[in-house]
Amino acid sequence: MEELGIVDDQLVKEFDKLPADFWDFKNEDTKELTHSIHNYPAVMVYPISRNIISIVKKYQNIESFPC
């Protein structure tokens, strides 16, 4: 479990380095592929999850999630 604490600290530092407008995706096409089929209010646009996974993969293996 201590290893996860270290990874958490690394992730916090990584996220803190991002510019303030990193998460706005104003210039990103969030409707590409099948992402425009359904429109739900307050949905997390896929670039958010894509970027979070990309950053986390630098510090932790997340190829599969434990059940």
TrEMBL record:
Domain of life of the organism encoding this protein: Bacteria
Protein name as catalogued: Uncharacterized protein
Organism: Blautia wexlerae
